[in-house]
Amino acid sequence: MRALHVRLTFAFALLLAALAVGLLLLLSRTSDRYSDEVLQRLNSGIAQYVVQELPLLEGGKVNEAALHELAHRTMTVNPSAEVYLLDPLGRVISTAIPHNRMRRVSVQLDPIRIFLQNPDRRPLYGDDPTSAAARRVFSVAAIQNGASLQGYLYVVLGGQPAQSIDAYLRGSYTLRTGAAALALVLAATLLIAGVLFTALTRRLRKLDQRMQAWAMTLPAAALGRTAYVAPGDEISALADRFRTMSEAIEHQFRDLKATDELRRELIANVSHDLRTPLASLRGYIETALLKDVARGELRAHLNVALRQTDQLGRLIDALFELAKLESGTVTPKLEPFVVAELLQDVALRFQVRARECRVEMHTLLDTDCILALGDIELIERAMGNLLENALRYTPAGGHVRTEMSVEQALVRVRVIDTGSGIEPQHLPRIFDRFYSAPDHSDRDRAGLGLAIVKRIMDLHGQSVRILSGRGTGTTVEFTLQRAAAEGPTQSSAGIITPLARTA
User: Which superfamily does 4-170 belong to?
Assistant: First the structure.
């Protein structure tokens, strides 16, 4: 009912109905007046003829015999006619109508004067003495005695019996046939209009369908809150689609603005992170070339240059790795693996680094051979990034702990450190590409480590979150989907294993 072509059809139907009613009223009114005009023109001379034939007033008195004779003749010719004898002021002097039917004792003289002075003006309506408000066509003639006006002969042509003529006309076969033909014409017109409006609005419906298909391709965040639109309401649907389009465009503008900000940060961070080791590497190489340095000093210079080269390699590798992960070409090779073994192996790799940083590393793992489903290489990479970040921002004497907890369908892995922590204003953007907290002076990885972790978890369809506060350390937690064990395993409680301790 809300479709545009249906609304147009109903509106057109209402318009046709209004026009039909107006036309019927106009025809009824016109036909009534035409009937009155014909009746008055055919009988306009009847009063004058009677006055000339019968002496109705003799010596100022009513000739009752002549009046009754006139009434008898008139009723014989026209049963609906009513005869009244009026004085010069319009008062009823005599009539053959029973007194109990009389509702007026006088009639207005203005229509009578117009009738006598303007014979071409028809129809004219005068007062009906048998009704308090009705006005009917009439015939009138002045009764003269020489030059003196004695009164009027006033004949109402459509009296009380004429009221049934209209009903008779409405019930006639001709009118019934005309009404039926009009109804058929209206029905055919509505049918044609419905088909025509449906054809004319077909392109609008196709546009609505294309807009709907486009809206379904938008991300849920860009759609916003969609108002309820009744099915088939193309106009409201299009309005809602355009609102959605506007919100989506605004959302994309915000994303582009944020991406542009990240791009500028990337340029600043990468240029800084690449320029620093390059400048150091160039300086040591130039020193080794320009000066006659001892063999031991040359070796020291070459070691520094090697470390700067390693740092450049790590930065470039991280950039290429993130670009590869975000290109859509990486598909995780999901396979079941023992979570505790993988976490223990990754932690052992950082044992030497932890000893150099004077940080204690522990693992609290469930050794019940809990299996998870994932890409071992990618999960190992994510764990390596998390442990590397934890060691970088944990001061000497601090602790870094890797732990896991098992749920019915998930395995939760946490990396917890006692480092400097992250201030709350930086947490919403900590997983963004190339973002590093401004107060972190160590920028070897240009803020790519957590971005890589986030992308790896997204590829696995799992979540990663970070809990931190300034001076309270940092906890990074991600989830893995559990895989069913293929055989019986020996159960043992979780144990704490010190990996590296320093006094």
Answer: PAS domain (3.30.450.20)
